[in-house]
Amino acid sequence: CVLCGRTDDCPEKYGEKRTYVEYNLTVHYYCLLMSSGIWQRGEEDEGVDGFLITDIEKEVKRAAKLKCNICKRKGASIGCVAPKCKRSYHFPCGLQRECIFQFMEDFSSYCWEHRPVQEFMDKEPRGASQCTICLDLVEHLPVYTVLKSPCCKNAWFHRECLQYQALSAGIFFFRCTVCNNKDKFQKEMLRMGIHIPEKDASWELEENAYQDLLHCYQHCDVKRCLCKKGRDYNEPDSKWEIKRCQYCGSRGTHLACSSMKSWEQNWECVECRSIFAKSGKYSKRKRHALATSETTDGTTCLLEEPPPKSPRQSSGSPRSFLLQSPKIMCQNLSPCSHLEQPASNRVTMSLSPVMSNRNWSLRHKHLRQQRREVCNILKELKVQVKTKTTRLNINAENIWSSALKGFRQRIFSPTNTIEVNFSNCKNRSKTNASAASKHHFFQVLMLHLQNSSLFEGSSGKNLSLDFQAVKENLYFEAGKMIAVSLVHGGPPPGFFSKTLFNCLVYGPENVKPALEDVADVDVAQTIKMIKYADSLSSLQSTLQDCCEFLTGAGCLRPVTALCDKNMLVNDILIYHVIKRITLPLESFRQGLKTLGVLEKMQMHPDLFSSILCHKPERLSVETVYNLFTIHSSSDVNKVEGADFWMGYLQDVASGESAVTLEDILLFVTGSCYIPSVGFDPEPTIKFLHIRYPIGNRLLNCLELPITKTYQQFKNKMELTIRNTLRVERE
Description:
Herpes Virus-1, 28 helices
């Protein structure tokens, strides 16, 4: 190298070593960047990355007069920028002497005496912890070789580990490995001399790097396969669909080969069944519980579309009305769940019809008011969204992996307007497809997240512990997707448990979990046995049986009195529901910070719980009627059609029509739900002298025909809406 005089070729330390035969020139890239007397005066393709050859030759002559304060040889091209400091040195010598080189702005260099240092609080512990990159111990000392995260209190790294991580991840993916913070973390690391190259991550540049993740196991492994087309044949939605083992996912069976009547049934392979049988934990109860709660051992394939937890119900199904009955509502609102009460104490509570209906009405009126206020808050956040668009190409057969790829692409920005293009959808008009596709994408994405292995529980979901998901940073992506969905017109998630919501808003240290937050049936059963032990001897016997579990949870302690069980139960709940998922929770919180959503949640917790912890109510005549504003150009007093519109909505709600209220909303806006942020523009109605109704999704405007009779109006509505939606679905 003409600047440092060394022949070493070590790109990680000195940058790429480049040789230009025509100029008789060899130089390390970092030596050139850090030299004090040279600037990039050319374009990127001129000279050496913008450094002109003539300027390099002048810098070599200037450096030849300067002696290195470290090795005492000539050619020291780098000087300390501290005032009155006259030290000069070669780049490799500076590294050895622990100088700091800042790869930003003016590319300043600081000698060993004037280099910037990190501030350490006197109260900070001076012990040791794991470097989260190499997993070796790193001592908490204010030395050159150790760096502390600016965004996490207990995150410490080896300087060398961080430098290798930065070179691999590049500027787009280099971030804190604990909390996922990017801006604050990168700013501090650049100040402390970590070089973050402006390039894509190394794993993104590798061809077909993720190809293996796109394949799901599809092979029938039962002893006698009944399928005539072979063990590898798989036909979705039929008896020849392949179901994978719910535990390991690496064995499969055709539904018919294992006498399974539907996809909803769970199946485990012989190997997993034998393992559970030997451990003594295999029971029918466990098998039934897993129908409503996914396994959390990290083996579930996150790139496949998981089955829903229960059969899909139409909005007008009997089950939907059942959920609104006073008796069931009272059970849902009961402070103690069936898991928490002993069998002898379980009583079905019911109120008088008048009281229950009144409570139901007041509760939902309050929720509607809260959701209107949330809508206004989200509209404030939506101001950040620019007109510049980002297109997401989504494979309808694999929503999760294509969504993940889209959100992780370098050009994706949550402040850009999002357009969604489904790769297997054809023959749609560009304008209408854009609105409908985006609404449908967010709806399916939220459903996938709800049923994925990132969450556990039946109705109110908590975060699960999936090590593979932690490694792939999927909890952060899930939080980011939910935040983007809320601001960009997606549906309210509605599946958070109160415990998860409180952890996000108030911090996990201020939350007390309950027994219903425990999704694992075996753990719940253990806690119940401890909680309802009626004597000291039975309590001690129970603790002896679950000694291994308590040791792993860090809750094993001597019990001398029966009242000690309450504190023990509380400790187990805090460990299993909160402490166990500390990393996923922090990562999920960082994702929710996207577009300022988490900050608004913490400012207005009561309002946001209405959309995050409660399912959206079914569309009603009143909701749909109030959603639309009759356009001022329509003379409502003279147009009898306004009454026809109200009458038609009542017929649809009562089941006297072939379409649903959701179909009407989809026809007009491209969405079958009301987004949390509302519609933009707000839906309107026009009464015009036209033959058939028109749904203008660009303006969210429903143009209705003026007819002489209600029957004519109804027939035209039915025909147009049914045919339009049928063509779109095909």
